[in-house]
Amino acid sequence: MPVIERITLFKIPNDADRDRVLEQYKVLAKTAVKDGKPYITNVAVGQSFPDPRNKGFNVSVKTTFASMEDMQYYETECEAHKALRAVAGPVKEDILSTYFESVI
Fold first, then answer.
1. pLDDT tens-digit map of 43-81
2. From CA 3, how far away is CA 71, in angstroms rounded?
3. What CATH number does the domain located at 4-101 have?
4. In the chain, where are the structural domains located?
5. Is residue 90 within 8 Å of residue 101, measured between CB atoms?
6. CA-CA distance, 93 to 11, in Å (whole number)?
7. Is residue 29 classed as helix, strand or coil in its secondary structure?
8. Which residue among 4, 63, 68, 103 sits deepest, i.e. has the most Cβ atoms within 10 Å of its Cβ?
9. Where do the H-state alpha helices sit in 14-89?
């Protein structure tokens, strides 16, 4: 069954801010619920390895959703995601996000 994969990259210049965002993703992974149940099927997050190809993006995130509806809920209604945005928003220099339906 196809799933929705969402890739998000952050540029966060300050180490302490980066650590706070990474910690907030850990909270999100434990607290994101829809209709009282966990709905994100997988979260992978970490500091990017230094590489010129990452163009300064230094935090990488992959979230997996069972459906487009779940991803849209994440984007618009999820309280755990709102809490994450409150932490990451003020400290990010830039963000890049994309999502796709996996063909595998």
1. 999 999 999 999 999 999 999 999 999 999 999 999 999
2. 10
3. 3.30.70.100
4. 4-101
5. no
6. 5
7. helix
8. 63
9. 15-31, 68-76, 79-88
